Amino acid sequence: METKIRLSQDETMVGESEEAGKQAEGSEPTDSGKQTEVGELTEAGSRDGVSELIDVGSRVGVSELTEAEKQSGASTQTVEGIPAGTAKAIKPTRPTKPTSLWQQSLKRLLQNKVATFGMIYLLFMFLFCFIGPYFSPYLTEKTNVAMMNRPPSMAHWLGTDNLGRDVLTRLMLAGRISLTVGIASMALSVVIGALLGAISGYYGGLVDQVIMRFADVLMTIPGLPLLIILGAILSDLKVPSDYRIYIVMLMLALISWPGLTRLIRSQILTLREQEFMQAAEVLGLRDRRKILNHLLPNTIPLLLVASTLSIAGAILSESVLSYLGLGVVPPTPTWGNMMDAANSLLDFEKRPWLWIPPGFAIFSTVIAINLLGDGLRDALDPKMK
Amino acid sequence: MRQYIIRRVLLMIPTLLGASILIFFVFALTPGDFVDTNLKLTPQRAQELRVLYGLDKPIIERYFIWIGNVLRGDFGFSFKYQEPVSDVIKHYLWNSFLIAFVSSILTWCIAVAVGVFSAIKRYSWFDTLVTLGVFAAMSFPSFFIGLLLIKYFALDWKVFPVGGMTTTGSELAGFGHWVDVAKHMFLPVLVLTMLSVGTLTRYFRTNMLEVIRQDFVRTARAKGLKEKVVVYKHALRNALLPAITLLGFELPALFGGAIITEKIFNWPGIGRIHMEALAFRDYPLLMGLTMLLAILTVVGNLIADVLYGVADPRVRLK
Fold this sequence. Notes:
CATH topology of the largest domain in chain A: MetI-like fold
Strand content of chain A: under 5%
CATH topology of chain B: MetI-like fold
CATH architecture of chain B: Orthogonal Bundle
Strand order of the largest sheet of chain B: 1-2
Largest interface: A-B, 52 and 56 residues
Shape of chain A: globular
CATH architecture of the largest domain in chain A: Orthogonal Bundle
Strand content of chain B: under 5%
Shape of chain B: globular
CATH superfamily of chain B: MetI-like
Number of strands of chain A: 0
Structural class of chain B: mainly alpha
Distance between the termini of chain B: 10 Å
Distance between the termini of chain A: 22 Å
Radius of gyration of chain B: 24 Å
Number of domains of chain A: 2
Oligomer: heterodimer
Helix content of chain A: over 70%
Radius of gyration of chain A: 25 Å
């Protein structure tokens, strides 16, 4: 199966780059694009030495694809309105201030309105959750028996819960945990996934077999059932609420690393065969340096996209688990276990302010992450589209 | 091709064995079993039950007994339902299949139509709307959308029943029974469709966009064919073909049950008994269900790979 996947990926890659090449020949504006590229190559060369030069070259190849793709989409307009095209051709071919690949990608990302919106929303969400509570008059107040189950009002914008706690404040505090769990489990699974993927792609052979078979086994059991079982075990072990957060992070990382490992491994397999790796070989670099300094940095665009999307997955999984009472449990609030209110019929039917806000928070955060991730993919890595 | 399939089937065996080891040890090492949770038992009776269910033997031995039985199609005896696990699964499997099947058909129809159309009208307002809708559908937590639908459609507006598969106490038979079931099915099917339609729509849109860019489509246009013929005859066929591989991946979803959706709508399927078995710590049933999911996933992957070879002859070479 592995060989097959590798083969098909190679094929698509060849197909795409050929196509991009054709388009580049066909349309005028790419001319200037090529020029800047060369400029960059030399610049990078003078900065970081030979292997880096080839390194960057391979990455430029990727980014060139996007440009060609974008232009193929946009070219219909420029060709029809000829002036725009000619004006571009006359423009100085080398920009006065050379921009790095990252700056180019960032620019592309910011041109994508939807992705920018996602990013701004996420920023807002972070501020809302991490700074917001300090503006709340109810932060120190734990429970208030006199104010139980009140609907939204001027004093309590989202009402109060069955212990008289302000729902809005709780929503912010819950967001802290939900976002932290999402990001931490992503970070963990990216570290595991990238390292194992790189090791297994680089060394091949027995190491590869062992790692990938283990990943296969983990992937045969669908994520949610596995999480639910592990969550139940946690409950049986009577893990204290404070520690459960960390274990839930571990659990989420456990189910998401195999996919990442596979992704990185296939990427490393193609990178390993490229010239800059031969150069690294000739330079007599140690394996660790080859993997960490030369192979993995080239997978960063891919990793960035995958990890963004995996935060969304982790937040969703955590919310499902906590909703079922198998993830993070009260008193630690998360968006998921706040929705636990919907499990009681009275709260569900008569007090929607208890469970609709956290549900909406999960939904809007996840959609913002997905939009940002998709924008990143367009900006960084056209192959994954 | 045959050799390829044989090799793939052989590769399945170690993977499934690995999965079975993982499943068994996760459950076996879990503190608290069926006997422990029943506080009414005297220590002596508890010991008898342990011997009866073979819980007193060393763990390695228990694994081999279990896997031996599984290979013979015997998944053990469910504590909660007091029936063999395979009977319990058989009993609920088709209920899960019913909603999963209907929602899969809906999903595929909607995804093909919407995906292809938004690819043809790329960057139009329809395309933007679809893209946003796709992301919304992908980002909804299943339980939240389910709860919202129940709240508004079932409780507030009373259009559809709250949950279950039939109206409690109804004695309807024949056509009336099916109408009743269809009413109960509507919301869970809606949720399942919404959750899966996003990814598939995106898939078809990307596929179609890729095909439209290719040379043979340009040739078809250059020949002076009508745009309709170019799109629906030449491009569409090629865009749909790779999708047959996805049929394989549908397998676990079709028979494995939807845990959250079925729990929320109280639909008597595999997903719901999964949650119930968990609450009851009915380990034989849980192990059976998890093993079933693992088998379905592996077989689904196999089908996907084989179909991939059917769709794209280049893959067969290796």
